[in-house]
Each structure stands twice: as C-alpha cells, then as structure tokens.
Amino acid sequence: QVQLVESGGGLVQAGGSLRLSCAASGIIFSIADMGWYRQAPGKQRESVATISSGGTTNYADSVKGRFTISRVNAKNTVYLQMNSLKAEDTAVYYCNSRYTREYWGQGTQVTVSS
Fold first, then answer.
1. Which pLDDT score, from 0 to 100, does residue 90 have?
2. Concatenated DSSP letters for the chain?
3. Looking at beta carbons, which pairs linking 15-19 to residues 24 or more positions away fall under 8 Å?
4. In angstroms, rounded to a whole number, what is the distance separating the alpha carbons of residues 114 and 51?
5. What pLDDT, on a 0 to 100 scale, did the predictor assign at position 76?
C-alpha cells in the first residue's frame, strides 16, 4: 500500500519560514520523481516544486529564490523548505510521487498571516 504522509504545515507570520516533510512508503522512492503542489481556496492545484530521481529541481516562478525542494533517499523523504513566506502562499500543500503511476498525499495546511 502506497502512502505519502505530509507534515510540517501550520500558521506562520509573513516573512517567516516552514519546512514541510513527506514520508513515502510502498514505493521505490529512489527512482520516483517527487513534487510539492498546492491548492488555495477557489483555485486550481498548481505545481510548486519538483525533484527528479536524479536530483534535478524545478520551481514555480512565484517561489523561486524562496523555496527549496530536497530529498533524502535513505529516509524515503522529500522536503520543502519555505522561506520569506507571503500571504499568497497560503494553501493546502500536497506531496506527489510519479513512477509509472501517480500518488498523492492527504495534504497539509499552510497559513501565512499578513
């Protein structure tokens, strides 16, 4: 059974930082491409950052220079370090895994107060 379990969300003031974690099980983590997506109320889900099995990263323009995605294959975990948070970063953040099939976590709420 595949599970992606996010943690680290919460309430933070604008300008603050949070680190999200996603622990994966039931997949061969080291060969999966991983990503973080977010969905704000009334908006479509959007890609925030992705990291390939080989370590190549991509970021949405809106988070470049502020967010960093990383992975530790030995821990089956992908991280999203979020700095200089803005009110518009408020959303539910989802972990995503892709290798032949796609899986999603249950999401973690990030709320940035202005």
1. 98
2. --EEEEE--EEEETT--EEEEEEEESS-GGGSEEEEEEE-TTS--EEEEEE-TT--EEE-TTTTTTEEEEEEGGGTEEEEEE-S--GGG-EEEEEEEEESEEEE---EEEEEE-
3. 15/84, 15/85, 16/85, 16/112, 17/81, 17/82, 17/83, 17/84, 17/85, 18/82, 18/85, 18/110, 19/79, 19/80, 19/81, 19/82
4. 30
5. 98
pLDDT tens digit sequence for 61-87: 999 999 999 999 999 999 999 999 999
Residues in the chain with pLDDT values less than 50: none
Q: How far is Cα of residue 74 from the mean position of the Cα atoms in its chain?
A: 18
Please give the pLDDT value at position 65.
98
